[in-house]
Amino acid sequence: MNRSTGRNAGKRNQDLPIVAGNGLIDRRALLGRGVMLAGAVGAGVAPSAAGAEPLTDDPWSLEIGEPTPPYQTRSKFEARVVRTLSNPDNEPRNSHARTPHHLLEGTTTPNGFHFTINHGGIPVIDPQQHRLVIHGLVKQPLEFSLETLSRYPQVSRVTFLECGGNSAPMFSPEPMQETVQALHGLVSCAEWTGVKLSTLLEETGIDPKAKWLVAEGADSPHLSRSVPVKKAQDDAMIALYQNGERLMPGNGYPMRLLLPGYEGNMNVKFLRRIKLVEQPAMSMYESRTYSQILPDGKAYRFYFLQEVKSFITSPSHGMALKEPGLYEISGIAYSGAGRIEKVMVSADGGKSWGQAALQEPVLSKAFTRFRMPWRWDGGPATLQSRAWDEAGNVQPTRAEFVAVRGELTKPPPVLAFPNQHYNSITSWGVASNGEVKHVYA
Amino acid sequence: MFTRKRVLFAASLLLATTASLSLAETPHLGKPLNEAAIANWDISILPDGTGLPKGSGTSAQGAVVFAEKCSACHGDNAKGGAAAALVDDRKLAGISASQKTIKNFWPYATTIFDFIRRAMPFTAPRSLSDDEVYALTAYILAENKLIDANDTMNAETLPKVKMPNRDNFIIRFPDRI
Asked: Could you identify which of A19, A156, A432, B106 might form a hypothetical disulfide with A354, taking C-beta atoms 3.0 to 4.6 angstroms apart as the criterion?
């Protein structure tokens, strides 16, 4: 008899089909067998009903509640759930706000929690005055207001947005003791609604010489990125709405370029100008910042794609498991190349793997929530997730990734961007006392 | 079995339907503009020099502007302060982005002009004249020994500056361009 069945000697627990080492349970146990699972949580011993206090009404059940506000905000008891800020005093440099993935669930990032990076503060843009101009190698330059764009056929799509520098602390040679928010908080997922860029380009007409467009924001750095016309004619959008309401100011109000699956910085916010050109502009962000150095001293240019990635959000660094028993391992997977095909989970540092359940709907270039039932036996465990996308790409192990992309010689400041486009496996080590820490495995 | 004639007829019908649909689908609400009306906003510079404005500047002129408007953040002689050093002789070593400098990494000198003109000074973007931007670009290039101290930067000379790291890049996904 192994240790885990010895600890959890309940009949119901023994029924759970183990699919991989260290207590991973078949994902199908989640489907249609929820009652059994719920009943099995804990040490496998049915709790006693004796000695329970009789239920009474709480004060809030005995008085009239608060007024109903015109725009509601979350419960005051949730005030600890916040984005973490890199520059709260708005000093003259850029500002990041990271999504608290370990405190959220599902696949939609609420607007207040969507990550953002601003390079010169958040402009206060009067939507009546804002203009979008499309010009350059077109047949007819055109100017659009928010009002006119709102009269165009609208399309909605759910897509993640990820900073090219998300997960950069993972380039550290040793695992940085940071939460999933600090490590992976520069990615979020929302439903965006707006006008397909191809619709507007149909109206301006495109000179066949045009191979790129240069997009520019109305913010103080006039942030500018070059985008292949190929992407503009595929799935690019001018986004006007974020999860059903107008864009958040920090996410580009009143309009932004949306390039599903492409690095966040290219999705130019506060979009005011698109110029069609023959060659890329080699703006600072594309020729310096998002050109990442490789171990041989060369550098990648035009990475664009946010490649297949996943990470476990619960349990994750900083959490503590109270007692041995059944838990749900849950996390997020996504790929800029399409739908998530499958996610495998390991509880023994990658020695054995079980297939996680994917929460429907599984959408292209969007967050996919995966879940995996797990019985923790109270011993050390190393939790990992690994994703595959429909294009056949697989998330690399850290060793595979570092062999190609290298790693730093010493841990970087956690808010720094020492390199970009990190997508390998994240490992959480669970100690016998239940504490969860970031480890490399 | 389709005859050639019927196939042609069906194809032309399909074309006609598609064309009328696409016309009907887009509202054509954009306001026509000419490039002259956009000129003040059009600050895009391409690495071959397309878009560079008239005007010029030298390193000596740039040093004066730099001391007045840039050194508070970028330090005396552009050696770095609260904001990055712009004159820096370090070599690239390892994969850390903190090693990147204008001299050892930036592939095109036009990017220096472009970024200064659109984003600097941080607290007063678009406040510099084109001559001042040329002068600052010349100053940074000369202090980094990428041009001679007496060279003038303008729309002709700036794109011709050969940056040392230019040929050291790999396009990651060529099929996406």
From this structure: A19
Query: What CATH number should be reported for the domain holding residue B130?
Result: 1.10.760.10
Tens-place pLDDT, residues A76-90: 999 999 999 999 999
* pLDDT tens, residue by residue, A184-213: 999 999 999 999 999 999 999 999 999 999
Q: Which domain holds residue B116?
A: 43-170
Least CB-CB distance to B94: which of A140, A223, A408? A408
Helix (H) or strand (E) holding B14: helix B4-25
* Contact (CB<8Å) B173/A412: no
What are the residues whose beta carbons fall under 8 Å from the beta carbon of A10, sequence distance 6 or more? Answer: A40, A43, A44, A45
Q: Which residue type is seen at A271?
A: L
ipTM of the complex: 0.91
Residues 6+ apart with CB under 8 A from A401: A422, A423, A424
pLDDT 10s digits, A146-189:
999 999 999 999 999 999 999 999 999 999 999 999 999 999 99
d(C-alpha B47, C-alpha A303), whole Å: 19
CB A240 within 8 A of CB A173: no
Listed by start position, the domains of chain A span 131-162+189-281
Contact by Cβ (8 Å): A20, A375: no
Structural domain total, chain B: 1
> Phi and psi dihedrals of A405, rounded to 5?
-100, -15
B47, A279: Cβ pair inside 8 Å? yes
